Amino acid sequence: MWPYITKRLLLIVPTLIGIVFINFLVLQFVPGGPVERMLSQLRAHQQGGEAGAAAVGVGAGRMRQASLDQEQVDYLTKLYGFDEPAHVQFLRLLRRLFTFDFGDSFYHHKRVLDLVLEKLPVSVSLGGWSFCLVYLVCVPLGIRKAVRDGTPFDNVSSIVVMVAFSIPGFVLGIFLIVLLGGGSFLSVFPLRGLTSDGWEQFTAFERIMDYLWHLVLPLISYAIGSFYVLTMFTKNSFLNEVHHAYVQTARAKGLSERVVLFKHVFRNAMIPIILGFPGGFLAMFFAGSILIETVFSLDGIGLLSYESVINRDYPVVMSTLFFFSMLALIAQLLSDLSLVLVDPRISFESVPR
Q: Which of 113, 183, 300, 333 could cross-link to 123 by cystine, CB 3.0-4.6 Å?
């Protein structure tokens, strides 16, 4: 197993380099950039100066402004490191990323690492609890639907999860705010953030309850769209195993349906579900939802990534891309290892090198 793990870990490095290279090329051809954004801000502050220059002489004012703009462009280009050739910029970027020196944000003027750590608790809360809720609801529901396949319970539950899947999370979030968040009807749940004002003065129990109370609406809006896929996947996985010969043999031996289901079918049916467990965990844990965070005023990683792309904040864009790509590759490796743990028939020793 260890040679396989070592090989996979070594493959992570060229894969990350390829991901960074492709996105670096894309950013090179995207119009606009941090220099142009900073210049537009500086020009906005210089409107008064232009008016004064126009009073003295329009031509002279324009010449001084053009000279000033060129000086600013040269200064900002050098400041951001864009004065060097593209290959030098790329190599410097790789060195910084692989040494976890993510640099400073162009837009927020803070260290990228500090910025990510500041936003991370929101995404951890939303993604982590969503992951737990989805698996705790969908796996038992999928098993129940498989056991009662074709019954009214199966049909009604399929309709419910399908309707939930068809509703965009941000639309549901707006509806819940209007209905339960003090919109046009009831004022039951808070609208913003994950804590109330004065949260530091609360007791430990009050802090926990306040935190959970703030999570209810965004958690429902974020997680409910994931119910359909995992529920139906679990159901179909169990139904596929039920028709195998070993299940018929177990029933012929006189074993109860509960023993057949949970001792024989369950382990084999859960293999594809467990295979996607690390990837699903990572997706919900870190990806977050830009629209959900916007609707409920949650300042998390998703909103940070979106703002960084809009503002051409390249250090944040490349650093978060690198970090989450690395985690995704590690999650894929963990998926393979978890498959070995649940299925003893699989061994990495037989994998060709």
A: 300
Please state the domain extents for the chain.
34-101, 112-350
Tokens found for residue 123? 């995404």
Which range among 111-125, 155-169, 211-225, 276-290 shows the weakest confidence by mean pLDDT?
276-290
> Residue 64's pLDDT is what?
47
Short-list 126, 122, 119, CA closest to 223: 126
Q: What is the pLDDT of residue 212?
A: 86
Q: How many residues does the chain have?
A: 353
pLDDT-derived band at 169 (thresholds 50, 70, 90) equals: confident
Query: Angle between the 47-56 and 58-79 helix axes, to the nearest 10 degrees?
Result: 150
Residue 181 three-state SS:
strand
Half-sphere exposure of 168 (CA within 13 A, CB side): 8
Please give the full DSSP string across 289-317, using - where no structure is assigned: -HHHHHHTT---HHHHHHHHHHTT-HHHH
325 contacts 332 by C-beta, under 8 angstroms: no
Query: CB-based contacts of 327: which residues, under 8 Å, 6+ apart?
Result: 282, 286
The architecture CATH gives domain 112-350:
Orthogonal Bundle (1.10)
Residue 276 CA to residue 269 CA, distance in Å, equals: 13
* Interval 265-309: pLDDT, tens: 887 777 777 766 666 666 665 555 677 887 887 888 878 888 888
- C-alpha distances out from residue 265 to 26, 229, 237, 239, 249, Å: 48, 20, 10, 9, 12
pTM over 0.70: yes
Distances in whole angstroms, Cα of residue 162 to Cα of each of 76, 140, 146, 280: 52, 17, 16, 20
Beta carbons of 88 and 82 less than 8 angstroms apart = no
Measuring CA to CA, which residue among 321, 349, 346 is closest to residue 335?
Answer: 346
- 3-state SS of 206-230 is HHHHHHHHHHHHHHHHHHHHHHHHH
